[in-house]
Amino acid sequence: MTEARGSAGLNGAVYAPGTPCWVSLMVHGMATTQEFYGALFGWEFQPGPQQLGPYVRALLDGRQVAGIGQLPPDRHLPIAWTPYFASADADRTAETVRHCGGTVGVGPLDAGEAGRLVIASDPAGAVFGIWQAVEHLGADITGVPGTPAWDELLTVDSSLVAKFYETAFGYEEEPVVSADLDYVTLRIGGRPVAGIHGVGSALPRDRGPHWLTYFEVTDPDEAADRVIELGGHVLEPVHDTPHGPVATVADPEGAKFAVVRTEHRAAGGDGRTVG
């Protein structure tokens, strides 16, 4: 993980193309999942677009931060948080994904009046979304507890997929120069927006390459304990990083995510809102 991203746009501005603008989770148990995240992050919920089935948007103090949808009973897909990257033209981005060796699994399709979406995977198999905003710009608030702080791709080797993301979304790459760390920070307009972490054989075989969403919390130790109390699991206990303490956890259905208190907030930074 590197620097946590701040708000991508203020006063209702659309997120810059390539910027993570939304995270969404598809589960079998909608009610129990809402109870878990509501208790953990203080989220409340309201109905969202139903094009792919039952779907709710999570709210924090009335501002949208994430989405949770219902998987059909016969679909046994991995339960995972999926980041959506902003695009000015989802159809064109989907074509680029295909041209660069990725796969388009869903869409492009309209999500009512909210926008246009695509669900795709990179050449190594990591799933991500593409979002072309119309009425729904994405997350309304960042930088406070209960909001996404960072998205990081865990893959075998960053060099195998970094060029794919650069071509698909126009990122500037900033590799870490180190014999011990395979990490590339993805930037838009010079600002860090996401990361690619090559972990080699440490990649869990049961998951394969995947995107990991970090959520801001006040105290990662307390959050990890709360995850267990609510029926989830701690996959990697709290450990210090240059950017703040982090724990990797999973919800009761197995969706993996991380909780972090970023250096930005430890220094007293304020949350900023979009819209």
Question: What order do the helices and strands come in, and which of them pair?
Answer:
Layout: E1 20-27, H1 30-41, E2 44-47, E3 55-60, E4 63-70, E5 81-86, H2 90-99, E6 103-110, E7 115-121, E8 127-133, E9 141-142, E10 148-155, H3 162-169, E11 172-175, E12 182-188, E13 191-198, E14 210-216, H4 220-229, E15 233-239, E16 246-250, E17 256-260, H5 263-266, E18 272-273
Parallel strand pairs: 1-4, 5-8, 10-13, 14-17
Antiparallel strand pairs: 1-5, 2-3, 3-4, 6-7, 7-8, 9-18, 10-14, 11-12, 12-13, 15-16, 16-17
Give an account of the 3D structure.
The protein has 5 helices and 18 strands. It is α+β, with helices and mostly antiparallel strands and 275 residues long. The chain has an 8-stranded mixed beta sheet with strand order 2-3-4-1-5-8-7-6, with helices on one face. Strands 11-12-13-10-14-17-16-15 form an 8-stranded mixed beta sheet, covered by helices on one side. A hairpin with a 6-residue loop joins strand 11 (172-175) and strand 12. Helix 2 packs antiparallel against helix 3. The radius of gyration is 17 Å and the shape is globular. The two termini are 27 Å apart.
List keywords for this structure.
single chain; 18 strands; alpha+beta; disordered N terminus
